[in-house]
Amino acid sequence: MKKIAFITLGGTISAKGTNRLDLKDYKSGLIDGTFFVENIPELKELAKIKVIPFDNVSSTQINSQHWIQLKYDIEYYLNEKDFDGAVISHGTNTLEETAYFLHLTVYSSKPIVLVGSQRPYTAISSDAQLNLLNAFRVAIHPDSYGKGVLVAFNNKIHSPREVTKVDTYDVDGFQSGTMGCLGYIDAAHEIVYYREPVRKHTIDSQFSQIKITDLPNVEIVYSYAGATGNLINHIVQSEHYQGIIMAGTGAGRFSKSEEEALLNAVEKGINVVRSSRVGNGRVVCIEPYDQLNAISGDNLNPQKARILLSLALLLDRDRNSIQEIFHQY
């Protein structure tokens, strides 16, 4: 049997409700990894599991220091202790962000699978048990090697670059937009892949080969009708930020006031990435914003673009170099 490191965080998957119908007021962080292994006996039939408590923090409290420590913990168990893979239980609110950071920074080709649930473990019809079991099925499967970090959720296997949370409570809470998922865990409990990531990740990523102790501050600004640009001006004046992600309307556009504020930001040496709030489609360079010298965020959503820009700034602050990184990752 394969050895799998089971790294546990908080989130809905670790939650207990006041009763079996409590789907919203539950408390997370009350169920640990040992409980999962003992109460889902099928897990022991799949792998030799080592439970590694990480932090029972809600995913809304996850920060870059959690990500960095998690990266090095995973590398320790996969590369030094020779585990065959890792499963990470995580709250759903920022699961996609943790997954994408690890996808870009972990130096290993072994399967790393993130999983959560939309309903607490104690709820009637909870998705926690099956999601967790499926995550281990994905982690031990030979076809999961070399695909980077994976997200197993509601019988689907996603890549972190595309997957995003799309529903507040529904069990089919994660989707990969127009790209689609990588594969499925079907009713026969078989793992079937139909595509694989082609952008750089894990051992092919330059970010997995550098020492990371902290990340530069990058802020996201959400554009809307009548946006004033005041938030951008505040970011520039604070002098604590090296980058701004614009969650623009449509194809990455924003108000005239925001454009003027962004010009000032660029003059102050802040890198600006144009992204979109719409959820699908590429953001490309367009002539009206040539004077901004902004970086095109491709089809990354704003929260993923923020992670990639933060990592890119560890290597270079040159606009053209960062743009090339966005083309490759």
UniProtKB/TrEMBL annotation:
Q: Which GO terms describe its molecular function?
A: asparaginase activity
Q: Which InterPro entries match?
A: AsnASE_II, Asp/glu_Ase-like_sf, Asparaginase/glutaminase-like, Asparaginase_C, L-asparaginase_C, L-asparaginase_N, L-asparaginase_N_sf
Entry's Pfam families?
Asparaginase (PF00710), Asparaginase_C (PF17763)
Question: What EC number(s) has UniProt assigned to this enzyme?
Answer: 3.5.1.1
> Which residues belong to any copy of the L-asparaginase N-terminal domain?
3-198
Q: Where is the Asparaginase/glutaminase C-terminal domain?
A: 217-326
Classification via SUPFAM superfamilies = Glutaminase/Asparaginase
> Which keywords describe this protein according to UniProt?
Hydrolase
Q: Which enzyme type, at the first EC level?
A: hydrolase
Sorted alphabetically, which NCBIfam families does this protein's record hold? Answer: asnASE_II
The entry's family comment says: Belongs to the asparaginase 1 family.
Q: What is this protein called?
A: L-asparaginase
